[in-house]
UniProtKB/TrEMBL annotation:
Pfam families in the record: CrtC, Lipocalin_9
Domain AttH stretches: 42-213
InterPro entries in alphabetical order: AttH-like_dom_sf, AttH_dom
PANTHER family reported for this sequence: BLL1000 PROTEIN, HYDROLASE
Protein name, as recorded: Carotenoid 1,2-hydratase
UniProt region (Disordered), positions on chain: 154-174
Length: 350
């Protein structure tokens, strides 16, 4: 975050324009909502998944692009004003080495350096890019120190609106929320480069899209989030916003069955129980990398055990002035997905 603060501070312009408030009643419209919503303060395009090589290896990957609108007066005539700032993370989980390879980029929009286009998904920072084609396929290309990803994603299911038709509460106040939808069960093909070795891969991925102006309550420490693709074609998101000092501030998520029936989880329907922790030697943070997830569904409680591909999947982006968090591939009974743990190194500010 320090890199973003530095970019904003360099502008030195007061009297920022207000941000739009997230409210219920949204009607998601595609392909427009795949594209950027530059009036909102924060937005991201997030893809994670499991990959499989011809040699029988399993790999995990993450590609995330963030867009933020700093508090800069839009009337500022300077072409150097940081009206929009983009940053991105990419990571590759390799259980053979037990290491998470990762990289990051950041730049203000414009000058041919970075863009987040409206109308459909096309977001880029220099040579890193995530875009959607008119035929509905998504593609990403990123190259970082020690690895590169060239992946194509074909949707097999329609978008899954989260919360109330895409309005997803994140706290006790109605405006502590985001507009949010997911695209689970993306079919993946492409190539992964590790060092000088290139391997063809196939797999399955999950896409998340969120935009917001007031994402977290002041009392929030961070969140535990999981997105799971199940073998039977169903898909589930579950999250909890953790309270500073301990406990849960808010929960939510949804389960869409293979036949399309969807259950939306309320603020008392989700619980995470730590089963095993891992301490980062780099940051000292202790993460609950294996958890039992309980959700209230079908007049009962169902439980899933989330087991990481391996423990050391912390993304330490302090070198680029960006946050530290744990983002890891996980297995569960009848499915696979990703688990994200934020606010364990320090409280998350958004």
């Amino acid at each position: 975050m320090r890199a973003l603060i530095g970019l904003v501070a360099a502008v030195g312009v007061a009297a920022p324009a207000p941000y739009p408030v997230v409210r219920p009643g949204i009607v998601l419209r595609f392909p427009a909502d795949h594209g950027a919503h530059p009036a909102f303060r924060t937005e991201w395009w997030y893809v994670t998944g499991w990959l499989h090589t011809a040699a029988g290896e399993d790999l995990g990957f993450q590609v995330t692009f963030f867009r933020t609108r700093p508090p800069v007066d839009p009337r500022n005539p300077s072409r150097f004003a940081a009206g929009q700032v983009l940053f991105a993370h990419a990571a590759l989980s390799d259980p053979k080495t037990g290491k998470l390879l990762h990289g990051e980029k950041a730049a203000r929009a414009g000058f041919g350096l970075a863009q987040a286009r409206k109308g459909d998904a096309d977001v880029a920072i220099r040579d890193w890019r995530l875009r959607r084609s008119e035929d509905g396929r998504w593609a990403t290309r990123v190259a970082a120190d020690g690895f590169a990803l060239a992946l194509d994603f074909r949707p097999t299911q329609p978008p899954l609106p989260q919360g109330q038709g895409g309005y997803s509460r994140k706290g006790p106040k109605p405006d502590q929320a985001s507009y949010y939808y997911s695209v689970p069960h993306l079919r993946v093909t492409g190539r992964v480069k590790r060092g000088d070795v290139v391997a063809a891969v196939t797999g399955e991925a999950w896409l998340d899209r969120e935009w917001s102006s007031d994402y977290l309550a002041p009392a929030a420490q961070g969140w535990d989030w999981t997105g799971l693709n199940f073998d039977d074609g169903s898909a589930m998101i579950a999250f909890r916003i953790r309270r500073k000092g301990g406990g849960t501030l808010w929960t939510g998520g949804s389960l869409r069955r293979a036949d399309g029936r969807t259950t939306v989880f309320g603020p008392n329907d989700v619980a995470f129980r730590p089963l095993a922790t891992w301490r980062s030697k780099a940051t000292g943070a202790v993460y609950p990398v294996s958890q039992e997830l309980s959700v209230r569904v079908d007049s009962g409680v169902r439980r899933w055990r989330l087991v990481p591909m391996f423990a050391a999947q912390e993304l330490d982006a302090r070198r680029g002035g960006l946050p530290v968090y744990w983002e890891g591939a996980v297995r569960t009974q009848g499915g696979r997905g990703y688990l994200e743990l934020t606010g364990y190194a320090q409280p998350l500010a958004m």
